[in-house]
Amino acid sequence: MSPTADTTLVHAGTFAVLGPDGGLTGRGGSTPDGLFRRDARHLSRWELTVDDRVPLVLVPLQEEEATATCVLTPPGTRDEPPAYTVVRELAVASGVLTERLRLVNNQPEPRTARLALLADADFADQFELRSDHRRYPKEGARRTAHAEPTGARFTYTREAWESQTVVSASPAPGSVEPTGSGAHRLTWNLPLPAHGEAELLLRVEARPHDAPAPAPVTDPASAAAQVRAEAADFLGQAPPTVPADGPAGLADACRQGLADLARLRVPATGPDGEEVSVPGAGVPWFLTLFGRDSLLTSLFTLPYRSAPAAATLRALAATQGTSYDPERGEQPGRIVHEVRHGELAHFRQVPYGRYYGSIDATPLFLVLLGTCTETTGEPELAQALEEHARAAVEWMFRDGGLADGGYLVYQPDPDGLVNQNWKDSAGAICFRDGTQAEGPIAVAEAQGYAYDALLRTARLARAHWSDPAYADRLEAEAAALRARFARDFWMTETDFPALALDGAGRQVDALASDAGHLLWSGILDTPRARRVGQRLLEPDFFTGWAIRTLAAGQPCYHPLSYHRGSAWPHDNAVIALGLARHGLRDELRALTAALTETAAHHAGRLPEVLAGYSRAEHPRPVPYPHACSPQAWAAATPLALLASLREVGQG
Asked: 360 in helix, strand or coil?
């Protein structure tokens, strides 16, 4: 058997995607391998040979306790079994990949084994890897590599930009030779006693431009110890308690989710320059501060861990828009969509260094600030971020569109994101026939977030900012928005809210899961909210594993589309919170049980997204082919499910 699954190790903004043999091949496309830090691949080749032969996989790479181990052997036969067994143990800490390679002699006489590692660093930007066809000009860029006494050093320069990857080994290699392609081959002649063994320690440092120094770890054990120590404050608190009648497996899913969230934290800076640790969205593509993802992840986690919420709010306040920059979508008061540190973002060849193309991050910032204050009972953060909150409110009215057209709207960005809600792929905001809505677009769920944001900010103003007049104004605006929404978004024929209003004010009539977010925000009245909640559990929406993004049977539906028929755990988590808010206990229990069973099929870890196939079509949840895993808001979903059960009195 030849296993093909990759293993992902991640810590503090650094991650490695490794093959079943512990190696790297320089693969690109939708499933790249490599060692990544700050949006760049710092190790692209890591290929082992023993006596000039590629070893076979006996036990594929498997992660356990912050390290991953595999067992290999050179080719052999029944009559001539392999001379060696190779055990590779790898771990990732901030900026570092470490490996302990142990070679065991299976023979009764001494031998000398020739080991070789082919190493290379292509410094590919993640946006290059994601786009197989687009090439970005890089005038003056230069990639060099040279041997060092203990390994090799790879360097990438472009103007003042410089990144390095340093490979070092103990014992030092006997030779380090270029291959002509930029890669270098490190070789050792290792003496092995009869039935004895030898060991190599390898360390790869990723040193991106203007990044903090890598962690001072020397081997997988010390790397794993650092990972565990930094996660202890997060994981060492009392674990969430699942009610006795809750779904079997929910406790396991919560534990796995917390473990993933601990590893997905990335360093960021608060408004006063303070260091904070925020939920990065996920690997391989989104291990960075993401407004919407980090906010919803923090909301889901808040009942059980408040640190992510406080850190996320501070980091987003520090990156809040202060001026107008059309290229990046920056506007005063607007909350950032994503922050990137890579080469293409630095040279503004992509707009995502600080990209503000999100219609919902700003109201969700206010929702999280209000919820965090109410949950913790501590007003200090709301007081410290008062100016940022007021600026966010003013953005919603001024540039967001509430003052002029009555709704939060976005214009499709041809150089960035065409859609700027959570369903941000091209074509996701569509009519039933599949036609993409044209802007300016008012998506339904963003209006609900705005409604909730206004009410929560009003409570902050009245309770903690000593400004009752401002609170009155926001409450009046929220009531007016709720009335407009009921008038303009409700589709009487289908008894269901429209996905959006297009630039001409037409109802975008696809039946979509976004309606479930309206239950959570409270913008729908109770009778309509309950009807929507019940409708979402009917078979065209509910696969038996999760609720689809679009109801099946519509011309626009596709079970393998990213946002037009797939099923997203975090989307379902928001729906679950809405079901709980409106007392839809039976629907909530059915959804929670289904998602918990889905997690069990993935060893307790919910993936970013699932294909839209139902239980009737396949007895197991069908994976979406390009899902990120681990993904922060999917990891936090079990915590939201648990909070939903508690809200309706299930324990």
From this structure: coil
